[in-house]
Amino acid sequence: MKTLLLFLSLAIIIFLPLSTSKNQAWIAVRDTNGNPLNKMNRYWIIPANHTENGGGVRAVVYLGSSTDLQQQKTTICPTSVVLSHSPIDDGFAVYFTPENPRYEKIAEFTPLNIHFAPVYPLCRDLTVWKVDNLLPNLPPAYRHTISTGAKLGNHNDVSSWFQIRPMALEDSRKYYKLVFCLQGITTYCQNIGIVPQNGYLRLVLSQHPMPFQFKLDNVIKIGMAAEA
User: Fold this and answer.
1) Which of 76, 147, 177, 210 has the fewest CB neighbours in a 10 Å radius?
2) Which one-letter DSSP state was computed for residue 1?
3) Mean pLDDT for each 10-residue chunk of the chain (228 residues)?
């Protein structure tokens, strides 16, 4: 507990707090068809504007700039979370798993894990998203990049809990932003945006959120989440 409290106190220096409320009204996150997200389904995370920002979210082999998880530097599995180069590529499908296992629908502002549906059998343990470089006093080159390698549902891992929050409506469409929240006695959150890195647009913690939509992968039937 002392270690966690020290970590949280140091993290306050790193993160800009975003407003959050424990009494937030329950509002479902909806996909591009207007249906509530369900934890048993899988979805593509796509930019609000494909043509300007590339394609959907996917993972590629380690891009560098991480002090976390030495395994990222040696594995052949894709662990760096990026946008696809091609605007017609929806990327890798993901599951959203709420912190509370009783919830089936995904609500705005709800703590959750994000994990890719397994693409390669040998990489099944490297699908859950996390934030790199949460240690304080790192040089500026070590950004808070988004990678895979966390464990699903691990409350002791403060690097792997995210939220989906609403953004402005445009052309009758509702966009969302992804937010990382450092869970603890006090919750501090930071938006997720993109930066260029080694030829890709890498997902990172940022003051400039990237607007996203969620597109149902209707090729895969409901009930496949347990395999992720």
Assistant:
1) 76
2) -
3) 42 48 77 96 91 85 56 71 92 96 94 93 92 67 84 93 88 87 75 91 94 89 43
Q: What's the DSSP call for residue 103?
A: -
For residue 4, what are the contacts with CB-CB under 8 A and spacing of at least 6?
158, 184
pTM, two decimal places: 0.82
Coil/strand/helix, residue 31? coil
Any idea what the Cα angle at residue 158 is, between residues 42 and 155, rounded to 5°?
70
b (16+ CB within 10 A) / e for 21-58: eeeeeeeebbbeeeeebbbebbbbbbbbebeebbbbbb
61-84 in b/e burial notation, b at 16+ Cβ within 10 A?
ebbebbebbeebeebebbbbbbbb
Q: What are the percentages of helix, strand and coil residues in the chain, rounded to 5?
A: 10, 35, 50
